Amino acid sequence: MRILGAAVLAMESLVMGFALLLATKNESSSTITVGGVLAICFMLTAGLLKKRYGWILGSILQGAMLGYGLFVTPLIFLGVLFTGLWIAAIVVGRKGEAARAALLKEGAPKVEKT
């Protein structure tokens, strides 16, 4: 779960950085600054996913990305896309962790020597 979430946040940080390069021509400096702070927060939050507050902060940042899309309209689509990937990382990650826990509970399969 953590690897999927970190991948989503890292990719979102990179996309946000590249989107800021495109937004420099049309947007104000405060909008660019907020976008830069968001990009840095995405990257830093990817390292915090070992704890529950990292996941909460990641979810809050997804909302911030959607809100930022109201100021830089091309980012609305990307915000929706990454929010969907974030939700998928949580759902698929939980299923994967449950399957891993079930395998660990059963124990390692014994291999017979011939």
TrEMBL record:
InterPro entries, sorted: DUF4233
Transmembrane spans: 6-24, 31-49, 69-92
Keywords associated with the record: Membrane, Transmembrane, Transmembrane helix
UniProt-recorded name of the protein: Unannotated protein
